[in-house]
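Posting for a labmate who doesn't have an account.
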Amino acid sequence: MSRRPTTARRLADTGGIPFVGSFHPKSRPSPLLSLGLVVGALLIIGYVYHGSGGRSPADAFSKLEGGMSCTAELHRALPGLKKAYGDNMRKVLHVGPDTCSVVSKLLKEEDTEAWGIEPYDLDETDSNCKHLVHNGIVRVADIKFPLPYRSKSFSLVIVSDAVDYLSPRYLNKTLPELARVASDGLVILSGYPGQQRVKVAELSKFGRPAKLRSSSWWIRFFIQTSLEENEAATKKFEQAAAKRSYKPACQVFHLKPLLR
């Protein structure tokens, strides 16, 4: 993932309301027309938000644009992960964009420590995220380099929306490093091939567009890097998902930690 940190913001943060500002600069639409367009746009977003089962406004924007985010999907997958890992979710590291939202949610769980790594620039952040960063709970770190943690520092490491932007050259180093700091398991959420990703100025922020790979590609890669599937966790997660009639919108891989 060759990229330079920038201050580009993702779609949900650009503040762009559809249609507003699309007029010729010399034309002056009536206040009522402008107000009507804004209200109409908000109604559309509200409809998408309602139809998404109460997901966040950022998710609503993603759905409106036809894109998706595996970090947003992770919020839906957490109940199944809790069933699959149980006590092994006592100390969790999340790696991926919007990690503040994931860490905040995990910290609300009883007997759960949560930490996060944001692989890309944090631009404008809310007060809660600033608090997490200030206290060292969330760090901004380039995951192409060794992580600033000792081996087996966390019971479970969860990665979303990060590996899809890494080339195989960096994946060879990053995935074993992520598995190194996990004592009980590594969970990876990756997009399905053919999915449209959220438009977030990918080239400027990530340095490359997302490369959405098939499950067979990932399985071959895991074998090549000596990472083994955690079959027990996979089965428990699938059973929990079936009970909730939940079908993940992202590929979810459950891997064992490195033995060494």
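Reply:
Got it, the structure tokens are right above this. Confidence is low (pLDDT under 50) at residues 1-27, 44-66, 199-204.
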